[in-house]
Amino acid sequence: MRFDIISVLPGLLESPFAHSILQRAQKKGISEIVVHNLRDYSTSKQKSVDDYPYGGGSGMVMTIPPFAACIEKLKSEREYDEVIFMSPDGETLNQAIANQLSGKKNVIILCGHYKGIDQRIRDIYVTREISIGDYVLSGGELPAAVLVDAVVRLIPGVLSDETSALSDSFQDGLLDAPVYTRPADWNGHKVPDILLSGNTPEIEKWRFDQAVERTRARRPDLLDE
Questions:
Q1: Are the beta carbons of 208 and 178 closer than 8 angstroms?
Q2: Tens digits of per-residue pLDDT, 183-224?
Q3: 3-state class (DSSP) for residue 46
Q4: Where in the chain are all domains bearing CATH 1.10.1270.20?
Q5: Architecture of the domain delimited by 2-152
Q6: What is the pTM for the complete model shown?
Q7: Cα–Cα distance between 40 and 221 in angstroms, integer?
Q8: Domain(s) of CATH 3.40.1280.10: residues in the chain
Q9: How far is the C-alpha of 114 from the C-alpha of 29, rounded, in Å?
Q10: 74 to each of 5, 125, 190, 217, how far by Cα in Å?
Q11: Rg (Cα) of the chain, in Å, rounded?
């Protein structure tokens, strides 16, 4: 799966994509992540990518030409399944969206800044808008990194244990059950006896019951859904 990320601050994405699971996925050739500097597509002497908003008001707006030039160049090289704009007013990212996107082949992600991007880019090119929560960040780079991480880890061959992702929180509409490891007794705080019993059916039942209880306490909205 290939991600082409268009950003005015590509340096912000160097670290997230150079470590852990995302690094492993790229080294294995399972995923390709390419970050494009939007300023490379600006035709102004100053390489500017923003201008004052029509109608007045505070802040600056990212202009059409650099985005259009980069997107058109990428589309001339391959077909894309989605052109995603990371935006606070997009649909909120959840596990179902990550699962769906993990089956795509080529995706473009646009990272906004300032007061956002010219609406015409959204109208003409963007096929999907995604938010990572009801708050505003300085730009779309960190949300883009979150989205890519959530999607790439689901692609077969990325995780050492491919069944691990299937038992993550939200995969079955529930939060995950508590997890424990050695030692079985730490300063009097013990692992639940059921987990040491070796009785797999009872352990799975305990985990399910714990997941439901945790979800009811922390995210009852998930049970409503």
A1: no
A2: 999 999 999 999 999 999 999 999 999 999 999 999 999 998
A3: coil
A4: 169-224
A5: 3-Layer(aba) Sandwich (3.40)
A6: 0.91
A7: 45
A8: 2-152
A9: 34
A10: 11, 12, 55, 46
A11: 22
Q: What is the pLDDT of residues 105-136, one digit of tens each?
A: 999 999 999 999 999 999 999 999 999 999 99
The superfamily in CATH containing domain 169-224 is tRNA(m1g37)methyltransferase, domain 2 (1.10.1270.20)
* Residue 37 DSSP code: E
Dist CA 119 CA 130 (whole Å): 15
**What Å distances lie between residue 225 and 47, 108, 173, 212, 221, CA to CA?**
48, 30, 8, 13, 6
Q: Give the burial string for 151-176 (b: 16+ CB within 10 Å, else e).
A: bbbbbeebbeeeeebeeebbeeebbb
pLDDT digits (tens, 9 = 90+) for 158-168: 997 766 666 56
